[in-house]
Amino acid sequence: MIEVQSLRKTFSHGGRQQVALDDVSLCIEEGGIFGIIGRSGAGKSTLIRCLNLLERPDSGSICLGGQELMTLSESALQARRQRIGMVFQHFNLLRSRTVAANVRFPLELAGTLSAQQMDARVAELLALVGLTAHSGKYPAQLSGGQKQRVGIARALANQPDLLLCDEATSALDPETTDSILALLADINRQLRLTIVLITHDMRVIRQLCDQVAVIDHGKVVEAGPVLDVFLQPQHSVTRSLLAETGLGHGVLPASWRERIAGPLLRLTFVGEPTLEPVLDKVGREAGLRVNLLSGTLSEIKGTPFGQLLVAVMASTVEVARLPEIFAREGVRCEVL
Ligand SMILES: Nc1ncnc2c1ncn2[C@@H]1O[C@H](COP(=O)(O)OP(=O)(O)OP(=O)(O)O)[C@@H](O)[C@H]1O
């Protein structure tokens, strides 16, 4: 468990104080994938860099598995950091070293393994990230996705119990992003490794994360399981980040609302009902005819979900009874 409490971090700019983190508290479960999302300048990089004290907060506490980082001596902190892997947006590989030598580097720094043990560990890591055939190449000879695989292998070298990913896929095209996200999901499953990532892209959160925190102007404005935050976003920043990725939670522009007769329903499907003809079934039962206004159908870590916004054209039962009727089919219905 990682417990972050009341973090505050300010920077000074030409005599002016800039608050980068303002009373940030988070609870990150062991073994899960926790995403931190926000717009540019929200404080994401500062927050992730505070988690291994690359950036030292002005105040607050960071407790990793029961150990308070802020009170560790410099040498104890160095030792602890070796078990916190970090993956960077621009890979940060050593250009003069081969793939294998880049992955070997943190093992050399730790100095705990023999040369033979290091070679064996490097081979194991390259197999894990699918780069065995590229071990003798230099970073300049690799694609962006391959470079990030090296970055991930290097971050895992000293068997970390926490992996921090700083916009790990932001420099990659969509297809390569998918393959890196799949690799991170695999590593999380196989090694039961806690992953904390920052991103500005809701698709990364949707594909990879179990929990998410939304940060805005240095504050956590919303946090919870990804499914809950996607289906019931509470904050305007969350809503707009979702809308930009086409995963908006059905809201109609006010000018349209006036032109649509009849009550509006928001129907939320999670899991099996998403794939069943529930609307047709309830339509027949309740004499319900609707005008479909907007819809989202997607998946969060393998769980299908959907959200429809519809206007009621006709219904043989009271509209107020529809939530109960939809609930029998496992669908949430809100009368808006
Ligand atoms: N080293 C620094 N010196 C001064 N100000 C800084 C420093 N690092 C960050 N800041 C300021 O702190 C605020 C948060 O920045 P941060 O880089 O954490 O945001 P971010 O969400 O990661 O943004 P981006 O997605 O653009 O990287 C910004 O206003 C930024 O200008």
Integer tally of domains:
2
Query: Which cofactor or ligand species appear?
Result: adenosine-5'-triphosphate
In the CATH hierarchy, what is the class of the largest domain?
A: Alpha Beta
Strand order of the largest sheet: 6-7-8-3-9-10
- What does the largest sheet look like? 6 strands, mixed
Broad shape: elongated
How many β-strand runs? Answer: 14
How much helix is in the residues? 25-40%
Mean pLDDT: 93
Spans with pLDDT under 50 lasting ≥5 residues? none
Instruction: Give the name of the CATH superfamily of the largest domain.
Output: P-loop containing nucleotide triphosphate hydrolases
User: Count the helices. How many?
Assistant: 12
Distance between the termini: 39 Å
β content, as a range?
Answer: 25-35%
Q: What does the radius of gyration come to?
A: 24 Å
Strand-and-helix sequence, N→C? EEEHEEHEHHHEHEHEEHHHEHEEHE
The CATH architecture of the largest domain:
3-Layer(aba) Sandwich
Provide the structure class. Answer: alpha/beta
Q: Under CATH, the topology of the largest domain is which?
A: Rossmann fold
Please outline what is shown here.
By secondary structure, the protein is an alpha/beta fold. It is built from twelve helices and 14 strands.
Describe this protein's structure.
The model has no long low-confidence stretch (mean pLDDT 93). The chain starts with a strand and ends with a strand. The chain is built from twelve helices and 14 strands. The strands form three sheets. The chain has a six-stranded mixed β-sheet, sandwiched between helices. It has a four-stranded antiparallel β-sheet with strand order 2-1-4-5, with helices on one face. The protein has a four-stranded antiparallel β-sheet with strand order 12-13-11-14. Helix content is 35%, strand content 30%. α4 (115-128) crosses α5. 35% of the residues are buried. With 336 residues, the chain is α/β, with parallel strands linked by helices. A hairpin with a 2-residue loop joins β4 and β5 (67-68). It has two domains: 2-244, 3-Layer(aba) Sandwich (Rossmann fold); 254-335, 2-Layer Sandwich (Alpha-Beta Plaits), CATH 3.30.70. Adenosine-5'-triphosphate (ATP) binds at residues 11, 13, 18, 20, 38, 40-46, 200.
